[in-house]
Specification:
four-stranded antiparallel β-sheet; 2 domains; six-stranded antiparallel β-sheet; Alpha-Beta Plaits; Beta-Lactamase; alpha+beta; 20% strand; 51% helix; rod-shaped; 344 residues
């Protein structure tokens, strides 16, 4: 195998490597990095540029050269050789730049360039160009131009892939944002539904007039409180109260007045409920002597009547959970003692 054949085989290996790398590129910067190095190595050039079409201008995005060329600069398409290659959709092969009228000589004089090849990236509607440059006069061979054009064609595919990849990534981001927004909406709706259900449940267990628990609310919370007290071996005192009034005058309704009085007599942890009319239930723990509780309640009623200029009356039934009774049994015992009691 002669030297030219070996060299061409190495060039093909370089081209294959570049094509493989381009297939993995995910952004334009990586494509430019691959192309500038591969183009220079493919033809043994002293410099290579990666040019992009930017409207009616040529943007010299990147370069790999023995000395600076035009990286980062933009030129009108009709006044530079990369623009000519894109407009005419064919390679420009120039042995002596100063003998070719297509070359803007003033732009090249500060550089090392004497000869060049410029190939368009994509023959149909080119999106850029790849340039290679030599510091001594040199006419590139047809084989070398073919290698550069093959690299340019692969570059166009890689650029389209990057665009598709970026579009797909943007779609994924947009879809993810849509899913996040949808999940947030579902979460907000679930929270709102839960809040509404909690409100419905609370309203279903609350006496609308006084704001105390109603019978349903009392039965639910009292059962839980009774079970907790039983586990802690602490007795509970259940009071069944019938509040009346000797005052027939107008003013605050009896249930509201009675509820206001009871709130002043019991702790926040005690469970208060209105059954209807002036009938109330109270469940308390940690109360000490139950008779002392009844005495304090009657004394509190008297003080409330004097302070509020009321004439409330009170009948009290009570039951203490000292024998392991359940809530139904305590309610029954308290109801019996209520009917046996006189006004307080």
């Amino acid at each position: 195998m002669d030297g030219s054949a070996v060299s061409y085989e190495r060039n093909l290996e370089c081209l294959v490597w570049a094509i493989q790398q381009l297939s993995l590129a995910r952004d334009l910067d990586r494509i430019a990095e691959i192309v500038r190095s591969a183009a220079r190595e493919l033809v043994g050039a002293d410099g290579a540029t990666f040019v992009l079409r930017d409207g009616d201008r040529c943007f010299y995005k990147d370069e790999d050269a023995i000395s600076p060329l035009w990286k980062g600069l933009r030129f009108p398409m009709e006044s530079c050789i990369s623009g000519w290659a894109m407009i005419n959709r064919e390679p420009a092969v120039i042995e002596d730049i100063y003998l070719d009228p297509r070359i803007p000589h003033d732009a090249y004089r500060p550089t090392f360039v004497k000869s060049l090849v410029m190939v368009p990236i994509r023959s149909m509607a080119p999106v850029g160009a790849i340039g290679t440059y030599w510091a001594t006069p040199r006419l590139a061979s047809v084989r070398e131009v073919g290698l550069l054009q093959a690299l340019a064609d692969s570059t166009s595919v890689a650029m389209e892939n990057v665009q598709l990849y970026n579009e797909l990534e943007q779609r994924v981001i947009a879809r993810t944002q849509d899913l996040v927004a949808a999940n947030r909406l579902l979460y907000d709706e679930a929270c709102e539904r839960e809040r509404v259900e909690q409100d419905i449940q609370r309203f279903s267990m609350t006496d609308e007039l006084t704001g105390l628990h109603n019978r349903l609310g009392f039965l639910r919370h009292a059962s839980e409180a009774l079970e907790t007290a039983r586990q802690r071996d602490v007795p509970c005192l259940l009071l069944h109260l019938q509040v009346g009034s000797n005052d027939s005058g107008s003013g605050e309704s009896l249930p509201l007045t009675a509820a206001r009085m009871l709130r002043t007599q019991f702790r926040r942890d005690d469970l208060l409920a209105r059954l209807g009319g002036g009938e109330f239930l109270v469940l308390t723990t940690g109360y000490g002597d139950p008779q002392a509780v009844l005495q304090r309640l009657r004394a509190g009623l008297g003080a409330f009547n004097r302070a509020a200029e009321q004439s409330l009356t009170l009948r009290i039934g009570h039951a203490e959970s000292t024998r392991g009774q359940d809530l139904e049994q305590l309610l029954h015992e308290a109801d019996n003692t209520l009917h046996r009691s006189g006004p307080g």
